[in-house]
Amino acid sequence: MAQLPRSEEDLLLVIDVQNDFCPGGALAVPDGNAVVPVINGLQREFSHIALTQDWHPAGHRSFASSHSGKGPFETVDLDYGTQVLWPDHCVQDSIGAAFHSDLETVHANMIIRKGYRRGIDSYSAFFENDQKTPTGLSGYVRDRGVKHVFLSGLATDFCVFYSAMDARKLGLEVTVIEDACRAIDLEGSLNAAWEAMAAAGIKRANSDKI
């Protein structure tokens, strides 16, 4: 397959490449640090780059430690839907919340911090998990004339997936860069995510085709 042409209407969206999602972190994605050199290389191909950063206050509602008798990866029903409970991670101003030290951030036009409201989790780069509260990224996309979002980062089956699906709902063309992402794959969540994204018209490509 030929390389996809770059355009001023393209955005590289880099999802949550933070210490807590990399090996040794509180919620490590297997091989998560392997995305860093791929993403660094991709950044040279884009005029528009946005990074997201999980940014939870201590005692966040999505933490298993905030729910008596519950453990990590169990679920609870909250007012905005079913919530997976996570180990405490990406706590504001912690080392775990910092971007991976090798990730290039100087090219970013925008950094979106999400999940900073104690009462609601935020997987998507566009909306929090109530599907109503915006992060501000949709305004950037609109004002900059972005038409095509290319997704990278962690994790394929959660924050990348939700961001991709919301981008499609906003009418954008979406491509997930497979080798620039890694997955948690919680009870088949990776296959389910790929199937849902395919049904939504989301494309898949490796970085050498971007």
UniProtKB/TrEMBL annotation:
Pathway: Cofactor biosynthesis; nicotinate biosynthesis; nicotinate from nicotinamide: step 1/1. It is an enzyme of class 3 (hydrolase). Keywords: Hydrolase, Metal-binding, Pyridine nucleotide biosynthesis. Its EC number is 3.5.1.19. Pfam families: Isochorismatase (PF00857). One of its GO terms (molecular function) is metal ion binding. InterPro entries: Isochorismatase-like_dom, Isochorismatase-like_sf, Isochorismatase_Nicotinamidase. Residues 11-201 form the Isochorismatase-like domain. One of its GO terms (biological process) is pyridine nucleotide biosynthetic process. The keyword Hydrolase applies. This is Nicotinamidase.
